[in-house]
Design brief:
By secondary structure, the protein is of the alpha/beta class. 32% of the residues lie in helices and 27% in strands. The radius of gyration is 23 Å and the shape is globular.
């Protein structure tokens, strides 16, 4: 994590006559992660009371900067409400799926092309990340489907998603090799669903080996739909004993997020269920059915917003330079030059972006 998720930055503090600014106090606070921490936003405004809906949104925005929405229902008005709320709360949106296996079976290529064009055109401007294919389909159609989506929205992030298992053969990996992913198909990222029976306690070392395998394609990886129960069911594992309690769910989630966050190819993690549902026996959410936080929510919030977030302060050197090493993302920089009015600005520190920032004060 220290090596791959952080970078060195220098703030060059100067006066308007291009002289080093000395004797100032500098505060640097990270306000947004470059890494995408997300979840499915499936229960947005779906509760029976306004209080529950508001509570759901508050807990979501306090933890995540990334949301996945399903387009199965094609409720344009509801989707517009979601994307507007996400924009107001600086939450990036990824929509899925543009296509399903059933559509590929029943439709001709021209019908699929029309559906792509209609869907992308409808949400263009509000959604710029698409999971184009959600499951293995006719591989001869994968390339044109991505090309049609790219033509409709050249700036969009297009994702090919597939299921993986930490043991056995990787069919999705074989697919990526066969379609010559790097050269022929305009794919921007790979989505990986961990397809293990619910309650399986996958050894983190096995997950790391799978990530290394898919990293060989040279594309960013997005981990999607991890499901860890907290309903007391027995742990399915060859090395771990016990039951899936709220404590075990939280502890394993911390290990899962740490492994993924430490891998240089992973750029996002999307949890499967945010809140448990009263009509479901699978308690895999971060909140209970009454929207109280579980231990897992508190653990992830501590990791994302405390341990993996940078806050530094101090004074520049004699050359007016302030050095710091921080997690990639958006920062608010406040400079207090002596007894004068504080000056505030924002900078963005990224792995392949700028690391030197000029700040000029009157």
């Amino acid at each position: 994590i220290e090596e791959y998720r952080k970078g060195h930055a220098v703030l060059h503090l100067k006066t308007t006559d291009d002289q080093p600014l000395n004797g100032a106090y500098v505060s640097v606070q990270q306000i947004e992660h470059g890494f995408l921490f997300g979840c499915y936003l499936d229960m947005f405004d779906r509760f029976s009371t306004a209080r529950e809906n508001e509570k759901y949104k508050q807990y979501f925005s306090r933890l995540f900067n990334y949301a996945t929405i399903n387009l199965y229902e094609r409720e344009h008005t509801h989707t517009d409400k979601i994307t507007s709320w996400c924009q107001e709360n600086s939450i990036k949106v990824m929509a899925r799926p543009l296509f399903t296996p059933a559509q590929f079976i029943s439709d001709r290529p021209d019908s699929i092309k029309k559906r792509i064009e209609t869907t992308v055109a409808c949400y263009r401007g509000n959604i710029d990340q698409w999971e184009v294919v959600s499951e293995l389909v006719d591989r001869d159609l994968i390339k044109p489907c991505f090309q049609w989506a790219r033509q409709m929205q050249p700036e969009a992030t297009l994702i090919l998603n597939g299921c993986i298992a930490t043991t056995g053969k990787q069919q999705f990996c074989n697919l990526l090799r066969e379609i010559e992913i790097v050269n022929d198909v305009p794919i921007d990222a790979i989505g990986l669903d961990i397809c293990e029976p619910l309650g399986t306690h996958v050894a983190p070392a096995k997950l790391l080996r799978v990530l290394n395998q898919y990293a060989e394609f040279g594309l960013p990886i997005r981990m999607t739909q991890p499901m860890l129960p907290s309903d007391g069911r027995p742990i399915r594992s060859s090395w771990k004993q016990g039951a899936w309690t709220e404590r075990e769910q939280a502890n394993y989630a911390a290990a899962l997020y740490t492994v993924c966050f430490s891998h240089p190819s992973v750029e996002a993690i999307t949890w499967s269920i945010f809140a448990d549902k009263a009509d479901s026996q699978e308690e895999c959410g971060l909140l209970r059915t009454k929207l109280y936080t579980k231990r897992i929510y508190k653990i992830l919030r501590k990791l994302i917003h405390s341990e993996w977030r940078t806050r530094v302060h101090g004074s520049p050197n004699e050359n007016g330079d302030f050095h710091f090493r921080g997690f990639y993302g958006q920062y608010q920089v406040t400079v207090i030059p002596g007894n004068r009015t504080p000056y505030t600005t924002t900078i963005h520190l990224s792995k392949n972006g700028r690391s030197d920032f000029d700040i000029t004060l009157a």
